[in-house]
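Worked example 3. Consider a protein that binds flavin-adenine dinucleotide.
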Amino acid sequence: MEQRGMGQPEGVTAPSCDQHRLMMMSTSDTPTELRGVFHAETIVVGGGIVGCAIAFELASRGQEVLLVEQSEIAGGTSSAAAGMLAADSEDFAHPILAQAAYDSRELLHKQKDQISALTDMDVGLRRSGFITPFRSYSDLSQYKDKRNASSDSGQHWWDRSKVQREVAWLNRETYGAYYKPLESEVLPVSLTRAYARSAQMMGARIWEGVQDVRLLVNNDRVRGITTAKGEITCKHVIVAAGLQGDLLMHQVGVTLPSSPVKGEMIAIRFPAEQTAYRPDRTVYAEDVYIVPKANGEVWIGATSLPGRKDHSVSANCVQRLLGAASYWVPGIKEADFLRAWAGVRPSTPDGIPYIGRCGQITGLYAAYGHFRNGILLSAITGRWIADMLEGKSAEEIGIEALSPDRMNRRGVML
Ligand SMILES: Cc1cc2nc3c(=O)[nH]c(=O)nc-3n(C[C@H](O)[C@H](O)[C@H](O)COP(=O)(O)OP(=O)(O)OC[C@H]3O[C@@H](n4cnc5c(N)ncnc54)[C@H](O)[C@@H]3O)c2cc1C
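Given these inputs, the predicted complex is written out as structure tokens:
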């Protein structure tokens, strides 16, 4: 069994890793050494989906931006995601996030054309709708009790006979299902790279392999960053470093804790003669999700292991995920196993990402802690950060609840 800590082959029209690096370097070489004083108006630290979406939005507004990534674009958690844009299906820790999820999903659909015009890259974004199936009336009642009625407006109830007509590949014993037609999914690595490439096409500089990044702060004001290649001055720094965001913040006395929640996933493929049994839309069940992807694979996830940072995949996880998935889609038993991988979600103490200004230090912004929904929330995060850099306050945008300043100096919520 192939076990991948990070990076899944997605292969629609996204370039391979090596091609991608070459493409990145062709317009914006990562310098081997910085001579003299180097300056950028805004520096984004972190080349995952969040950092790349921010760079994309800033560049599209004509702002000068440099993104620095310690390894490679989409080398972190973003490479492990299922890529669901599950705005109508996920439970969100705050009503603002529920609305933001919806807005972000729609924004991503709008950005798709701009991205493809700039880069010719296909990010595998599709709006096929999700199905949430139930074994029994009692399972349905429990689900309804847990959900907030307003979050269920975009869904249709399908009884057993409708389910059997519409999705013949689903377990025929299914009691009924909600169909959520607006739900979408994307290839996360392709989207991350496409954001970076588009940003670059609009003038952003994207530097990979930048080691030893530290924030440079003087008199409670951001002055820039130091790196193994030298120093770069700037006006704003956006920390979009996912799980490692708290380490960077800690260096300058800002406590915005994040904690790891490991997730394991598997990929399968249906042989040509079995395609009638292949799901053509995402199954988002209580115990498992099954996501048919634009590259022909079907991704199944995911476990949730708080406190775990390693990238190993247990046999137990593979067995459990395959067991749950083949209950809902029996044809999965005949599919080919491709690979399994694990990634680590960046969580926060209250389940809400840190997005916005860090009041203690002028010019310092946080954009991390997106937990289970960083792919979904990437587009709106980029827009919010760009709005703030243009002078809007969190109050004006309506996102005070996401402000890093909700934590005190010890990382305890105020
Ligand atoms: C199994 C699994 C399934 C998931 N499924 C979904 C899903 O279906 N939909 C969804 O919306 N979300 C999903 N997620 C969550 C999603 O993957 C994350 O929320 C998202 O990837 C976080 O993105 P990020 O850019 O904040 O972090 P990352 O992708 O980790 O990017 C951070 C980057 O910062 C870089 N970095 C860190 N420190 C430094 C430094 N000091 N200097 C320079 N660079 C630095 C890292 O190298 C990394 O590349 C899933 C996650 C997992 C694990």
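Take a moment to read the result before moving on. The CA atoms of residues 84 and 185 lie 4 Å apart. Residues 95-119 form the longest helix (25 residues).
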